[in-house]
């Protein structure tokens, strides 16, 4: 490993440990005295950390940017001010010299690039940490887009993954986050998903798979790929003229219907999870183009994820439970998906979900008591921290994709009602499941009645939610405060045990260096004891 890689690993690991140490010491210093002034200081600290992370990520590129994009969607483990600073972190880096890109082309094609291209643009039309896109013309006159891997990308990503392995070992060993996240599985998922971006032939196969899967969907298209000139480091596809789907000026200029576009895009994403299979894991505005006639073009399939058919059915049961206000079904499906552990407080979580849905569905409720809604969303992070809720690693990129996608939809149509759009699709899905089983029973009749009576149920439900909100909020705050106190006690004890572990390990090192056998035995005893205490505190 060369010197540059070692320095890169050091900077990433040092930053991660520094951030965690700063946050832990701050919480320990202000334990039991949390007030608005302390909270303001805390926000300043994490905002400063987020800015430092963003600066380093933009400088180093590679995995750091993608990890920052991932962290920006993790409201369960990251403070809100950290998320806000990282929001909008894009994978845009300065392009390398054209000569280096030409060198990659000729190396992959084993011949001068002019053997295949009659024209190649003078500069990149897009540049990211892994690949750059050039516009070219094949010998037969076909205009194409060439995605070329940046020189040295393999080496840099190997260093980044090594740094992440060190950081994840530290998090698993010395932080309580391992109770919420399966770091081993997360690392495997990151390696498979992000590592797949290095093989452009895999992206070609994913793009074709999406095109075959959604070939019958009107107003949706995918690029055509050229196998004969595509390699592991060079991907050649048709050139498609279009604007970013979030380009509102373009939409207005061509008199397109923003609501219809948002609805069609939502259905496209929903179809990716209805019956399982691959989903686009990076659906930001730059990867979803819009043609002048309103056609949506999905590109860049370097980052995709997979949902099994069984997990897809559980996801749809969650949507069905939310639509029909059956929150026990929602919690059952969350347990099946491994998001929710058996010892969770189901009553508390069902109540939280119910109030979230009510806040979403009822503008009147939000206007009547905005304080309740504000506190609800502000305390959601604490609920996830204190309840046995975890994010299975295989859903990490799905959650990120869903968050990005909802952001795109809100730009297109700020007033979009996702539940209303999802309702007919979920019912269609439920019907198809029953047809497969050839059963039409009481559950289907109830499902139909609930759906048909939705408008009639809406008004009394809003009134009931409003009348019950003060009492529910009181119970909610009492439970939250009790869990927070317990969490702080465990955090303090764990921190103290961790300090003793580190000190005793240092004592072992010193006693070995000077070969002081009595001191070695004492230090070893303290090390084993403090490590056992540290690992036993939940």
Features:
538 residues; alpha+beta; 5-stranded antiparallel sheet; 4-stranded mixed sheet; 20 helices; membrane; transmembrane; kinase activity
How do the strands and helices of this protein lay out in sequence?
Layout: H1 3-29, H2 36-60, H3 63-71, H4 80-86, H5 98-109, E1 117-120, E2 126-127, E3 131-138, E4 143-149, H6 153-174, H7 183-195, H8 200-213, E5 220-221, E6 234-238, E7 243-244, H9 248-253, H10 258-274, E8 277-280, E9 288-290, E10 296-298, E11 304-307, H11 309-323, H12 327-336, H13 346-361, H14 363-368, H15 370-386, H16 396-412, H17 418-437, H18 442-452, H19 454-514, H20 517-536
Parallel strand pairs: 5-10
Antiparallel strand pairs: 1-3, 2-3, 3-4, 4-6, 7-9, 8-11, 9-10
Helix pairs in contact: 1-2, 1-6, 2-3, 2-4, 6-7, 10-16, 10-17, 11-12, 11-17, 12-13, 13-15, 13-19, 15-19, 17-18, 19-20
Keywords: Kinase, Membrane, Transferase, Transmembrane, Transmembrane helix
GO molecular function: kinase activity
Family: Belongs to the protein kinase superfamily. ADCK protein kinase family.
Verbal overview:
- It is a single chain.
- This protein has 20 helices and 11 strands.
- It has 538 residues and is α+β, with helices and mostly antiparallel strands.
- Strands 1, 2, 3, 4 and 6 form a 5-stranded antiparallel sheet that branches. It has a 4-stranded mixed sheet with strand order 5-10-9-7, covered by helices on one side.
- Helix 10 (258-274) runs parallel beside helix 17 (418-437), helix 13 packs across helix 19 and helix 15 (370-386) crosses helix 19 (454-514).
């Amino acid at each position: 490993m060369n010197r540059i890689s070692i320095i890169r690993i050091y900077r990433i690991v040092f930053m991660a440990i520094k951030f965690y140490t700063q946050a832990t010491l701050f919480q320990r210093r202000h334990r039991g005295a949390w007030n608005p002034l302390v909270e303001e200081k805390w926000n300043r600290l994490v905002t400063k950390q987020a800015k430092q992370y963003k600066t380093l990520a933009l400088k180093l590129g590679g995995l750091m940017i993608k990890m920052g994009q991932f962290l920006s969607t993790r409201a369960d483990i990251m403070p809100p001010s950290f998320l806000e600073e990282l929001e909008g972190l894009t994978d845009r880096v300065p392009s390398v010299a054209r000569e280096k890109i030409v060198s990659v082309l000729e190396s992959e094609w084993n011949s001068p690039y002019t053997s295949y291209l009659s024209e190649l643009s003078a500069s990149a039309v897009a540049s990211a940490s892994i690949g750059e896109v050039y516009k070219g013309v094949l010998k037969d006159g076909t205009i194409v887009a060439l995605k070329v891997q940046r020189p040295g990308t393999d080496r840099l990503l190997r260093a980044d993954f090594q740094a992440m392995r060190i950081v994840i070992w530290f998090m698993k060993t010395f932080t309580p986050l391992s109770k919420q996240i399966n770091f081993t599985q997360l690392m495997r998922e990151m390696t498979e998903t992000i590592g797949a971006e290095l093989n452009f032939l895999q992206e070609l196969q994913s793009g074709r798979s999406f095109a075959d899967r959604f070939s019958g969907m009107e107003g949706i298209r995918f690029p055509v790929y050229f196998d004969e000139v595509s390699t592991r480091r060079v991907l050649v596809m048709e050139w498609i003229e279009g604007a970013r789907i979030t380009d509102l000026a373009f939409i207005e200029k061509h008199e397109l219907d923003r609501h219809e576009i948002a609805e069609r895009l939502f259905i496209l994403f929903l179809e990716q999870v209805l019956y399982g299979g691959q989903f686009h894991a990076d659906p930001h505005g730059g990867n979803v183009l819009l043609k002048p006639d309103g056609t949506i073009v999905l590109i860049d399939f370097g980052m995709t994820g997979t949902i099994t058919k069984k997990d897809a059915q559980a996801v749809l049961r969650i949507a069905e439970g939310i639509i029909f206000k059956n929150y026990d079904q929602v919690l059952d499906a969350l347990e099946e998906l491994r998001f929710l552990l058996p010892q969770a407080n189901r009553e508390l979580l069902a109540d939280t979900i119910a109030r979230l849905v009510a806040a979403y569905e009822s503008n009147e409720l939000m206007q009547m008591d905005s304080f309740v809604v504000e506190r609800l969303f502000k305390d959601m992070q604490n609920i996830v921290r204190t309840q046995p809720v975890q994010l299975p690693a295989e859903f990490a990129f799905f959650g990120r994709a869903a968050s990005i996608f909802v952001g795109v939809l809100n730009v297109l149509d700020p007033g979009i009602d996702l539940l209303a759009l999802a309702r007919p699709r979920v019912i269609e899905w439920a019907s198809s499941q029953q047809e497969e089983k050839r059963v039409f029973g009481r559950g289907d009749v109830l499902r139909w009645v609930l759906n048909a009576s939705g408008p009639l149920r809406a008004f009394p439900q809003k009134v009931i939610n409003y009348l019950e909100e003060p009492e529910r909020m009181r119970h909610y705050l009492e439970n939250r405060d009790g869990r927070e106190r317990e969490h702080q006690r465990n955090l303090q004890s764990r921190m103290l045990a961790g300090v003793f572990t580190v000190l005793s390990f240092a004592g072992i090192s010193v006693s070995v260096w000077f070969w002081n056998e009595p001191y070695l035995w004492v230090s070893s005893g303290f090390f084993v004891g403090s490590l056992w205490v540290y690992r036993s505190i939940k």
